[in-house]
Specification:
By secondary structure, the chain is an alpha/beta fold. The protein is 43% helix and 15% strand. Among the domains are: 140 residues, Rossmann fold (3-Layer(aba) Sandwich); 66 residues, RNA polymerase sigma factor, region 2, helix turn helix motif (Rna Polymerase Sigma Factor, Chain: A, Orthogonal Bundle), CATH 1.10.1740. Bound molecules: NADPH dihydro-nicotinamide-adenine-dinucleotide phosphate (NDP) and magnesium ion (MG).
Length: 379
């Protein structure tokens, strides 16, 4: 048990966190958890701490627990987490926080010179230009956990970006991929939080319905693989079996396939560059339905179209877009705006805030908050 990989997990009680915990439970001879955070689910965090004997625990919402029968020291707030990231001995950090809240965690992991397994795509949407430089200086790639990016990372192997013709990023099309367009104005929150394939956190599920998620993922791909947007082609693939593809300059297309399970990309990030046995991920290719691929209908997904324009513009605008989208989702959850209003909210914030090229971290954090507040206030 001496040489187990020491893993830290932010957002351990969420959907990605739970998949990671399942893997670690099944491979307790290889992996141990040495640091974990949850935002408010103290009960869940303490249960995991007991099961996995986790020494360093953080409740990021900062609230003091009224009872802690285990008498474990529990750190509170994001700042204490950042301190622990510098001080704790771990081999790899899985960032599974949701939304722009995850950015500073990624930043501190890279600042500590540690390996980052990244589920929190928003980190790269806001500060890809900063984080990829830090990873490069550490001489370690950021390990993608998002299934599409893991697929590309696996298909790429040791090939260089000069050998890539294009990346095909697959998308399920979300909850409303076949809803008649005239019904979109009637969409309710409870409909938007149902995903046809994946069981995920609320934000990423609604982002899949608008396909903002795919917009964020195109930006994520640009930074992870140092690629131009002209070389990124989104594809609707409702089966969610092909997780993405790389077309090389010689015309060869390599795809990564499996039944949909986030355990696969998480496991690969933990074991990279090796692979180990997965007890849960199995795909019987004879059971697969015919696999279909089609182009994106941007009339159905105007927010995705907008996100791709913002991606190309770059600078501060991806931060503004993401913050406005996060605020709009809060308003949509409270039924204060309609599903279609999410788009106009994001557009409104982009029109309000001027773009800034190559923003530094403080500027990003400041405008992230300002665009979020602006969107909530101007409702
Ligand atoms: P969930 O909402 O299921 O879980 C979020 C986790 O982070 C929980 O542990 C939660 O704690 C904690 N958390 C919530 N709010 C905050 C906050 N403000 N600060 C710090 N921690 C917080 O999210 P997912 O697991 O679905 O997603 C996590 C990230 O992974 C997202 O960036 C998402 O886009 C990405 N991702 C997710 C996929 C999936 O299949 N779920 C697929 C690909 C990417 P508590 O339980 O206490 O609230
Ligand atoms: Mg994804």
């Amino acid at each position: 048990m001496g040489n187990r990989l020491k893993i830290a997990i932010a957002g351990i009680t969420g959907s990605i966190g739970t998949s990671a915990v399942n893997i670690i439970r099944n491979h307790s001879d290889r992996f141990q958890i040495v640091l974990a955070s949850a935002h408010s689910n103290a009960r869940g965090l303490l249960d995991l701490a007991r099961e996995f004997k986790i020494e360093n625990l953080v409740i990021t919402n900062g609230v003091k627990l009224s009872t802690n029968s285990e008498n474990k020291k529990i750190y509170r707030g994001h700042e204490e987490l950042y301190k622990l990231i510098q001080e704790t001995d771990f081999d790899i950090f899985l960032n599974a926080m949701p939304g722009s809240n995850g950015l500073l965690t990624s930043y501190h992991v890279l600042k500590a010179g540690k390996k980052l397994a990244l589920a929190n795509k928003e980190s790269l949407v806001l500060a890809g230009h900063i984080l990829t430089k830090m990873a490069k200086a550490n001489n370690q790639p950021i390990l993608p956990v998002d299934s599409e990016h893991s697929a590309i990372f696996q298909a790429l192997g040791n090939h260089t970006r000069e050998e890539i013709r294009q990346l095909y990023i697959t998308a399920s099309g979300g909850a409303f991929r076949s809803l008649p367009l005239e019904d979109f104005s009637q969409i309710k929150y409870k409909d938007a939080i149902q995903h046809p394939v994946w069981d995920m956190g609320v934000k990423v599920t609604i982002d899949s319905a608008t396909m903002m998620n795919k917009g964020l993922e195109c930006i994520e791909a640009k930074w992870l693989f140092d690629i131009e947007y002209d070389q990124i082609t989104p594809v609707i693939h409702p089966n969610s079996i092909v997780h993405s593809m790389v077309e090389f300059i010689d015309g060869s297309i390599l795809a990564q396939l499996s039944n949909p399970s986030m355990e696969l990309p998480i496991l690969y990030a933990l074991t990279y560059p090796g692979r180990i046995e997965s007890t849960n991920v199995k795909t019987n290719i004879f059971d697969l339905p015919p696999l279909t691929f089609s182009e994106v209908d941007y009339n159905r997904y105007p927010l995705f179209k907008l996100a791709l324009e913002v991606a190309r513009t770059g600078g501060l605008h991806p931060t503004i877009m993401n913050a406005a989208n996060e605020a709009a989702l809060e308003l949509f959850a409270k039924e204060e705006i309609s599903f279609l209003d999410i788009h106009s909210k994001v557009e409104g914030a982009l029109n309000h805030f001027q773009n800034i090229a190559d923003p530094d971290l403080d500027t990003i954090l400041e405008f992230n908050k300002r665009a979020f507040d602006y969107t909530l206030r101007n409702n």
